[in-house]
């Protein structure tokens, strides 16, 4: 069955329209296996993102710099990891102009190869600014998992025609590993935050139980009431109590 248009769902994870073939060997499989283990060992989500961009430059042929564009609240995007200032400036040029391979990869579910920035006509305002920065070619891959988009992996080079079919093939496999690692790191960080919040509220309840001889339910109800009366998040009420020994009131806001 033929693939849908590049904007359709079946364009996800597929090469760009310039792709004519690919080549790969056992060495790539070993590299990607090592990458998966390395990313799994990172302690925080940010460390995972930083490791991804560093590994992208080392793994994908032609890449001199790399960055990760991450979707925030579904429509906003920001660069959360990069190998250098050039990446952040080039990404900002795309965000400012609302055009570029990074945004197409993120929102149109496709791989985008830009061979020569000086002869590119698809994104005139972005390419003008990118050329001024010294960027000459780009390769962007959408990062996604089953439940939603994560953003894009963007590879940069100061050389024209830096990326070929092998770059795309390796990059597509790399992006798949990176997306899974990013998703897993996010879930772990959310879990850590949830545990930290639970522990903080538990400490605050303990303070109230000891001070006022309350049950756990009564102490929690008191925290909730303080949160409602001060229009403050429950976790902030708990943190204030643990830090100061006082239950937050309207006057404390």
From TrEMBL:
Keyword Transferase: yes
Entry-linked SUPFAM superfamilies: CheY-like, GAF domain-like
UniProt domain ANTAR: residue ranges: 181-242
Coiled-coil regions listed: none
Sorted UniProt keywords: Kinase, Transcription, Transcription regulation, Transferase
UniProt entry tagged with the keyword Ribosomal protein: no
Feature: compositional bias, Basic and acidic residues: 1-12
Domain of life of the source: Bacteria
Signal peptide per UniProt: none
InterPro entries, per database record: ANTAR, CheY-like_superfamily, GAF, GAF-like_dom_sf, GAF_ANTAR, WH-like_DNA-bd_sf
SMART domains: ANTAR, GAF
Protein name (record): GAF and ANTAR domain-containing protein
Biological source species: Microbispora maris
């Amino acid at each position: 069955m033929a693939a849908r248009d590049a904007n359709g769902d079946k364009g996800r994870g597929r090469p760009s329209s310039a792709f004519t073939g690919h080549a790969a060997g056992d060495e790539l499989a070993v590299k990607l296996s090592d990458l998966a283990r390395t990313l799994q060992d990172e302690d925080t989500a940010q460390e995972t993102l930083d490791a991804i961009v560093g590994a992208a430059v080392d793994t994908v042929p032609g890449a001199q710099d790399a960055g990760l564009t991450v979707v925030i609240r579904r429509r906003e995007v920001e660069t959360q990891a990069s190998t250098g200032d050039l990446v952040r400036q080039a990404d900002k040029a795309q965000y400012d102009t609302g055009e570029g391979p990074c945004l197409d990869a993120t929102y149109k579910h496709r791989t985008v190869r830009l061979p020569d920035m000086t002869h590119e006509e698809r994104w005139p305002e972005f390419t003008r600014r990118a050329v001024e920065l010294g960027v000459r070619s780009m390769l962007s891959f959408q990062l996604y998992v089953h439940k939603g988009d994560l953003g894009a992996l963007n590879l940069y080079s100061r050389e024209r025609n830096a990326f070929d079919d092998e770059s795309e093939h390796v990059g597509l496999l790399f992006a798949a590993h990176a997306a899974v690692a990013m998703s897993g790191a996010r879930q772990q960080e959310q879990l850590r935050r949830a545990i930290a919040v639970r522990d903080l509220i538990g400490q605050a309840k303990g303070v109230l139980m000891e001070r006022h001889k309350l049950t756990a339910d009564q102490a929690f109800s008191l925290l909730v009431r303080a949160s409602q009366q001060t229009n403050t998040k429950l976790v902030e009420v708990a943190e204030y109590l643990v830090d100061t020994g006082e239950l937050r009131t309207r006057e404390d806001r």
